[in-house]
Design brief:
Shape of chain A: globular
Shape of chain B: flat
Structural class of chain B: mainly alpha
Strand order of the largest sheet of chain A: 3-4-5
CATH class of one domain in chain A: Alpha Beta
Largest sheet of chain A: 3 strands, parallel
Largest interface: A-B, 22 and 16 residues
Largest sheet of chain B: 2 strands, antiparallel
Radius of gyration of chain B: 29 Å
Number of strands of chain A: 5
Oligomer: heterodimer
Radius of gyration of chain A: 16 Å
Chain lengths: 158, 141
Amino acid sequence: MSLYRSMPDTVLTTTVDKLLNWSRLSSLWYLLFGLACCAIELMQTGGPRADLDRFGSVPRATPRQSDLIIIAGTITLKMATRIKLLYEQMPYPKYVISMGSCSNSGGLFSYAYSVLRGIDKMIPVDVYIPGCPPRPEALTESLLAIQEQIKKEKFLVR
Amino acid sequence: MLFDFANVLVFLGVGITFVFAMLLAGRFVRPQIPDPEKATTYECGERPIGNAWIQFNFRFYLIALIFIIFDVEIAFMFPVAVVFRRWVESGQGMLALAEILVFVGILFLGLVYVWAKGDIKWQKLMTTDAPVRGKDRRVSL
């Protein structure tokens, strides 16, 4: 039994909702998953200089524990089906950041025979980051954008 | 004194209760959207092929054991080689030499054993009285 989106809109439930959302956005764990050169920037973002950990965002080694998947790099058609499966294996609620030109639109390799032209052709994307590759600061910014999005979500309230 | 133990007990109790309380709370508030795709085995995005309960050939186990002989030999002979000169200078060279020879000798016995058993050979004909799944009792391993 689940109380997910089943309670009436009262002061108590909205307050609990705020608490739940706050705890969710403060522990936005992402799947440790990199595809191409954007993954280097992703590692840099997790590193001490940009330090994504201070937002409560730590890498997880399995999709079962992750809330967020960062598509960091060129999506080859072979990898695309794998990404789809990884996305499916994540528990709800899940978020997707499309990092860099390649996962936004195919980018530099958009005319290659083996490249998917944008991850949004396959899974829903919450935040797109432009850049080739985007700086760690841009990825941090996108994480903050996801946090803003979570703040507005209803979790307990119908 | 007894009170100190009660402290630990309370700590333990609260800790254990907290785990189950959190799991229960999570059960109540989380969205439950089951999906056969979600329940598939996680293999880094790869689709698993076949059963996980496959039988590995036991020869791999033997090879691993034989590898240990050489591995341990190397791992322990290098430190000896490094300090051997100092042992000789202090007049205990023969002792160190004898020690390492005994050590290598024991490992060598293991090597002789597997050699005599024919386990060094990858292809080996084995006869067994135990019922073997398959057609023949004589199985070529």
